[in-house]
Amino acid sequence: FAPWNDPGAKPYIHYRGITKRFGDFVAVDNLDLKIYEREFFALLGPSGCGKTTLMRMLAGFEDPTEGQITLDGQDLAGIPPYRRSTNMMFQSYALFPHMDVTQNIAFGLKQDKLPKGEIEARVQEMLKLVKLEPFAKRKPHQMSGGQRQRVALARSLAKRPKVLLLDEPLGALDKKLREETQFELTDIQYELGLTFVIVTHDQEEAMTLADRIAVMDKGRIKQVATPAEIYEEPNTRYVADFIGNINILNAGVERTEPGLTRLAAQGLGTAIEVERDCPAAVGDSVFFAIRPEKMRLSLDAPPVTDVNALQGEIWDIGYLGDVSIYHVKLDNGAVVKATMTNVSRVVERPITWHDKVWLTWSRDAGLVLTS
Ligand code: ATP
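Structure tokens predicted for Spermidine/putrescine import ATP-binding protein PotA (371 residues):
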């Protein structure tokens, strides 16, 4: 499933030249975005980057100042929220406290004046979908946070929207429950074959749930790609930093040839070689970015110490169960992080605080970023 790689595929949701201003403030800045049918799409970014505004314009709660949004080829301008085939599920659940689960799920269907039999059938279908059949007669206060979240999901799906919009849907759940619920959400989305758009500031949530992620900053999209691409091939320092852990070193381009970039890392006593075409010219300042798990940590000096090798001292160790994260202070004062699985940690002599260590990495392990 990768319609975004098919140049002929038609986008299902299409934002074109969308700008949203609140007074003088530009919340969304001339943005283009295509989302495909059946996609689970995440809008990810820090607070205030405009992700909720982008979603609210799709739902019809805000109008764009400029630009056009189409859904399945139809221009949404002037169409009120209740006549759009979108539905929004809110973080705060907004369940009616005096209604039981059945009544909560049936609420929107009654408002739409669906026949009684149809309402009953849909409520049953939804209860089954979210595995809450035994809870049909409970009130929200008699249920756990995770169960309430499932009622909210059932209620927003009962009207059979083509696109479900989820605004930080799991924000109120604890970590363990959030992880479980994430997988339920992807199962349900897949089973129903719907398009889901989620807004979140939680990179882990976006990575677990989404087919593709748009990373946003100040009303603009920095990168749109699959979770793996975003993690492995971030296009900017901003994206690299926002997703997971990464080490970023200042460097200058020393030499380039097809498929190889050689960088000089100021004051670090090593050259850096990366098996990639260089995105900049000789003499330019760039960033070398490398994930902590791509660093090898050793007490022994490597055979080659002047390329892709740094020496430092263990400054801190975080034990995370499956892996440990080591903070290594380099001679110039910079701190580099390296992770090692705790399986390898017990085989060798354990590396401990204040050990002098070597960090090495292979030529295919890092990235050269220009901004
Ligand atoms: P959060 O995760 O905090 O909700 P967000 O990325 O979803 O952040 P938005 O809610 O889209 O951000 O808001 C983007 C910017 O637009 C913010 O600076 C916000 O203050 C501003 N904004 C949003 N709605 C309005 C409004 N109705 N009037 C004025 N400014 C607004």
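The pocket of adenosine-5'-triphosphate is lined by residues 22, 25, 27, 45, 47-53, 201 (CB under 6 Å).
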